Every structure is written in structure tokens, then in C-alpha cells.
Amino acid sequence: MKLKLILAFVFTAMIAFNSSSAFAAAGAVYTLDNSSSGNAVLVFLRSADGQISSGGMFATGGTGTGKGLGSQGALAIDAANRFLFAVNAGSDNISVFRISENGLRLMDLVPSGGKRPISVSVSRNILYVLNNGGVVGGADTIAGFAVGPNGHLKPIVAGLALSAPSVGPAQIGFNTNGDILLVTEKNTNNLDLFTVNSDGVAVGPTIVSSLGHEPFGFAFGKRDQVFVSDALGGAKNAGAVSSYAISDQGALRTITAVAADKQTAPCWVVLTSDGRFAYTTNTGSGTISGYEAGFGGGLRLLNADGVAADTGLGSTPLDAAISNDNRFLYVLTPGTGNIQGFFVSLDGSLSPLTQATGIPASAGGVIAR
Questions:
Q1: Domain limits at 64?
Q2: Which of 263, 265, 279, 281 is buried most deeply by CB count within 10 Å?
């Protein structure tokens, strides 16, 4: 009898382990709690069918601000899914974690090369950070780092200025080739472009006036196209997305000047990796809008009313992320304390899927793999 009980226990444990492993193996979703008393990355394990469940909390070693960051890209993952990078806006440093099936392991914690880091982007072994120092009496700048094989960061360049000391920057991001950096400036309506050489040194910026108003988040697509959300100062039902093409020399060519989404404050935008569909999270109207992106970068609204999905009254949808397989969209909605999940159909339509609860109101940034 005792042997049967032992075998039953072992068999049950094997099932639980295999179920957990299968659940974790498909991927994960990450967000920052951005707590001012001690920042941490919240991990949610993703199953093959898109369901997510808590995978633990991992301290960054720094602090957050305790309130919204007003940026896109507070978290980044390298292309090989080895390292996760996180901003600590309250302590002016960057954390590097090694990604494993069991969670995250802190590998490095370094100064961000400025004040109030809010956005990071990585390409190959180069990481750049956007510092919003203008809000704390300093200057808005960018800084670059080389990423070592163990995840340790080595400074390359720091203190590169934007168009002015305080511009309300929102995001920094590499193009697909890793030789162009883009920064959006909310207050000045500017787009800043930096060229990046083979050593990871950024030069610039070339400053271009946005054709939309209040450029916020953006996503690079195929053929060096970039899709930029236009928050329009939060004007009711006036949000839009603009698309551009970027030359090798860092010049911008307009593709779609203003593609209205008929919603309010579309601050964040993400793109499927095949470049077919773009989604904006409309903070002011509690909705998600979807666009079909043409081969040439033109945009077509998927739904006549601009609503691909409703995240709920008071949800204030912020950051969004798409899983590596393009099947699932995850949206941070701290207004209701959730990360909401959606299944992405072949035609780009969205179906509610899953949600994680208990997300603090201070949370910022979300990324998926």
C-alpha cells in the first residue's frame, strides 16, 4: 500500500512538473511594477494557447517612480531571448537579467548615463537608453552600452542631446538593421534620428518635424518603415498613426501622414513581426485599434469605428506587446489592475483571451516572447 502511495505521488508530481514545463516553454510576458520602494519585474508564464499565469517577481536592484513613466519600451529583450533589460527610473540605472525557464537572474546593474531612464532598445550586442532628465532639472539624453556575453554592460557613449534639454521624450528604438535610432519628442512634435556605426556609436540627431501631433510610441517594420502613434494631446476621438520610410542616411520620407483611428490618446503602438498588422492602445477611450499595414507601409483601419477590442471603462490601456509567434497581443491596463490578452486572427481581428490580475497602478512597460 505504501509503495502504491509513493508511486502515485511520484506520478502526480511528474504530471505537475510536465504541465508546468509545457506551460512555461511557450513563452512569457513581463512588466515592471515600477515601485518607488523597490522596482521589480513581474513574470507571467505563457502557454501555447496564450493563457498566462504568475511566474514570480524579480527585484531589479533599483527603484521606480511609483507612477506612470509616460513612455514606451521600459523593457527590452535581445533577439536571442537571452537577456531582459529594465529601466529603474527612480534610481537612474539599468538592470540586466538572464532569462531562464525558472524565471530571471539579475546579471548587472549600471548607471543609465543620465537621469530618469524611461525607455531601452537593443540590437545585436548594443543597448541604448533614453533618459528623461528634463523632468528632474537635468537634460533629456540618450546613452549607449555594449552588451557582453554574460549580460554585463560597458558604456560606449553618454549624454547625447536631443533637440532641446526638456522635450518630453517617449521612446527610443533601433531599426531592424540596428544602424538607425529613433527618439520621439512629445512636447516639441519632433522625431530625432541618430545613425549608429559598427562600434555602436550614435551620431546625431537629425531632427524632423512629425506630420502627426504629439508623437509617442512607434514600431519599426519591414523595409525600414516605422509606424508612429500620434496622441494629439488627448483630444477626444482625434488619435492617429503616421508611417514613414527611413533611408540609410537617416532621412525620413512620409508614407501615410495621418491615419485616424477615431479614438482618444493612442500613445502606444506595436506591429506584428511579419509587418502585416499594427495595433494602438487608446488610453483615453479604453480601446485598441487595429491597422492593416500594406507592403509599401500604407495604413488601413481594420474596423470602421476604430475599435478592434474594448479593454473596459477606466482601464487606461498603456503598453502592449505581441508574442514571438504573432498569435497573441498583451496589453497593460493598470487602471483595472490587469494585463489583458487577445488572440490575433489571420485577418488581424482580436478576440479576448486571458488576463492577469493584481497589476499595480504604477506598472509600466510590457514585453512578450
A1: 38-368
A2: 281
pLDDT bucket at 354, cuts 50 / 70 / 90: confident
Within 8 A by CB and 6+ apart from 345, the residues are: 351
181 within 8 A of 226, measured Cβ to Cβ: no
Question: pTM value?
Answer: 0.91
Do the domain assignments include residue 101?
A: yes
CATH code where residue 255 lies: 2.130.10.10
Confidence at 250, pLDDT banded by 50, 70, 90? confident
C-alpha–C-alpha distance, residues 51 and 59, integer Å = 24
The single-letter DSSP state of residue 36 is T
Q: Is 261 exposed, middle or buried (0-12, 13-18, 19+ CB in 10 A)?
A: buried
Which amino acid would we find at residue 217?
Answer: G
Strand positions, DSSP E, 33-136: 40-46, 52-59, 75-77, 83-88, 93-100, 103-111, 117-123, 126-132
Q: Is residue 219 part of a domain?
A: yes
Q: Is residue 11 part of a domain?
A: no
- Let me know: does 40 contact 59? Beta carbons within 8 Å: yes
For 171-224, write each residue's pLDDT tens digit: 999 999 999 999 999 999 999 999 999 999 999 999 999 988 999 999 999 888
Please determine, for residue 7, whether its predicted confidence score (pLDDT) is greater than 50.
no
CA–CA dist 290, 43 (Å, integer): 26
Number of domains in the chain: 1
